[in-house]
Every structure is written in structure tokens, then in C-alpha cells.
Fold this sequence. Notes:
Low-confidence stretches: 1-21, 216-225
Order of helices and strands: HHHHHHHHHHHHHHHHH
Structural class: mainly alpha
Oligomer: single chain
Shape: flat
Distance between the termini: 30 Å
Amino acid sequence: MECRTCCGPNARPVEEEPHGGAAGGSGIRRRYLLSGALLLTGWWLLYRSLAPFSRWLTYDVFSLAPGTRFASAVQFFLFDTPKVLLLLTLVVFGVGVVRSYFTPDRARRILAGKREAAGNVFAGLLGIVTPFCSCSAVPMFIGFVTAGVPLGVTFSFLISAPMVNEVALVLLFGLFGWKIAALYLGTGLAVAMVAGWAIGRLGMEKHVESWVYMAGGTAEGGAAEGSISPDGRLRYGYDAVRDIVGKVWVYVVLGIAVGAGIHGYVPENFMASFMGSGAWWSVPLAVLIGIPMYSNAAGIIPVVEALLAKGAALGTVLAFMMSVIALSLPEMIILRKVLKVRLIATFAGVVGFGILAVGYLFNLVL
Length: 366
């Protein structure tokens, strides 16, 4: 489960520092922009050279026989590992800068007092850009409830934040193109909004632990809400890269290793029969397999790539990925601190039904 810079000992606000006057600030800004342009150019050149470099390593340096399963798996690993890490670094930096404008406190103020239907929409959209991770599920929930945010709106946010993951969105765009990325964005937001609305209609406030309504906790972390200079926002992006990529790169490599094994050794006909669109049970089975998995979005995307390449249906794979991200068993355990079992079961059931609907819908139309 992906842990961001929203909480924990590494969380820290970015404060504006004196730059020695306007001239000094302008000079620092120019250095940041110049270094950013050079880094982006280097990033693009590296990204473009990955395919020939992976082939050179696999067949010339390691002298593996072309066409063998092992060679195919090795080339997949050598190509995808730097590709995913490069994409991850770029998106985490960009999202880090964006997040300097959005804090949990600001999100609560936006949502508090909204009409419920509009609140579900705002909550789903805010969940994309607001810092969230499993370890902050409890303080975020308490903060929303004590701020007067309706329960259904709170759940729309809690579902959207991990499910419509900006890292997964950009990686999907880089690996599969804008259509699949847009499908993921649209369906994930729809599930979050509709599920939150449904939970709100059930009137399950009594199934929140009673102490939550008396708590005054707040979710801490994120960027400082005061004035942040452009340099400070860039530093926030650099810090996000250091913190997030430093934490998740192991999961990325493990996910790519699993994907490489699937790519090289799993027969196409087996994967098509197991996760194809023909078997009615493939979507619920994929969801059940994804629930107990403990992974972050960056680690699961290479597995998704390998499954699709082996003939798995898009709807089934999308349902699998959403269940890993949005119905993680560890997150359910954490939420038990603030929710009673019946509300957790309702939450899992409503979200699970939405994910199943997404899987069946895309298997039907694609």
C-alpha cells in the first residue's frame, strides 16, 4: 500500500524562506527552471533509449537466445524497470508541486457544508490530488466527521483518494495511452461518487465508533497553508520524489519481476481462459484475488501490463487493479479503529459491487 508524504515522521510543511530580496529570489528561480529543463531533457533522452538498451543488454551483453521464454522475461524486466521508475519520478515530482496547493485541512473546509450530492462529486475530485495513504485513513476520517462532512461524502473521498491514484493514472497513460487512462479515471471516480452516495443514503452514522464524534483530531501533513514561493513548491516536488520513490521502488521492482515472469512463462491461452471476458466468474475471482494483496499502484501496474499482453480482458484486469488499490485488507483493518464491522462490510460490499460493474461493463463493450 502506497504511503505518501501526508503523514508520519517524514511529513513536513514547506515554508517560504528568505531569498535576500527580489533579485536573489529571481536568480534562484532561474536556476530551478534551468536545472528543471536540463533534467527534463535528460529524462526524455533516457526514456527514448530504453527499448534499444534493453535489447542490447539481453541479446548482446548477456547473449541470451532470441525467442526463448527466459530471454523474453529478462528483456521485459530490463525494459520496464527503468521505464516505470522514470515515469514514477516524473509524475511524483509534478504531483508533489500540485499538492503544495492542497492540504487535508483545506479539503475538509471545501467539503464541509456542501450539499450531499455536490459533496460526493467534490470529494471524488479532491481525492485525486489530496495526500492520502492507509496510515492516514483514521485521522482523515476523524477530521472529516468532526468538521461536519456527511458520512457518504467522507466515503467518496476515502474511496477516490486511493482508487483514482495519480501515479497509476500517469503510468497507465505512459504504458497504454490516454484511452485506458481515461477509462480508469472515469470509472474510478464513478465508483467513488456512487458508492459514497449509496452509503450516505443508508444512514449508517450509528455504525461509526462513538468516540469519533467526540474527537477533535485532524489529519496533519501536506504543504503549509501559508504563502509558498515558487521555489518552495519546486522543493516540495523534489522532496516528494525523494520520499515516495525512495519508499516504493522495491515494490515497483517486485511488481515488474512478477510481470516479467507472467510475460515470459505464462501461456497466452491459459491467461485468456483464466481472466478473459468469456468466463462469467473471471471478474469476481479477480476482485477476490486482489483484496488480500498488499501493494501500491506503482507496483501493480507492471503486473497489469503483463496480464493484458497475455490476453487477459481489460475489464477483468481493471477490476483486479481497483480491488488491490481500493479494497486492500490492511486498509480495512486500519479503518476498524473508527468503523464498526457492519459499516466496513457495507463499504466493502458497495465498492466491490461498483468494481464488479466496471469489470463486466468493459468486458461487454470492449
